[in-house]
Structures are given as structure tokens and as C-alpha cells.
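FW: tagging you since you asked about this chain on Friday. Here's the raw sequence from the shared folder, copied in full. Didn't touch anything.
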Amino acid sequence: MGEAVDGLEAVEKAQELQPDLVLLDISVPRMNGIEAAKRIREVAPQSKMLFVSIERPADFVEAALSTGAQGYITKADVGSKLLPAIDDLRLKR
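HL: got it, structure written out here
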């Protein structure tokens, strides 16, 4: 398990840890979450990715999912949707 403070560190941690799951936000410093997701896909291709973001516009969601992420949840819905989304990803292994 790891935690990153920005997009660049998220990529570095993903490469180092090869996690089963990566939770990303779009709005992070140094490298936005969408670019970080693209790079994570390269360095940890087996990792599932799930975006958790305050952003709601459809173009943000589409951009996030175009990286190969398996899901997108708004922060307002985390309480009710995060664990079910993670369970769904585990079942898709």
C-alpha cells in the first residue's frame, strides 16, 4: 500500500509497488491525474485504476476513462459507491 502527494509520485509508487488498485484524482499537483494514469498504465499495466474526483463534467469523465481506468466516482458519492466499485473491480480479475 502506498500514498502519493502528486501525480508524479503516484507514477513512481505504482512502478515500485505494482499495486492491484490505484485510486486517482484528476486535480493533483505536478502532473494531473489523467497524465499520471496514462503513465501508470505503462509502468504497472496490471493495475486497476479508479478515479475519485470532485470534477463532474462529462469531458473529465471521458478523459479519465480513456486512460484505461475502470471507473470514475465523484467525491460526493464516495460514501455509497467507493466500496462497491472496488468490489466490482476485484470480481473482474
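FW: The radius of gyration is 12 Å.
HL: agreed, and Helices lie at 7-17, 33-43, 58-65, 78-91.
FW: great, closing this out.
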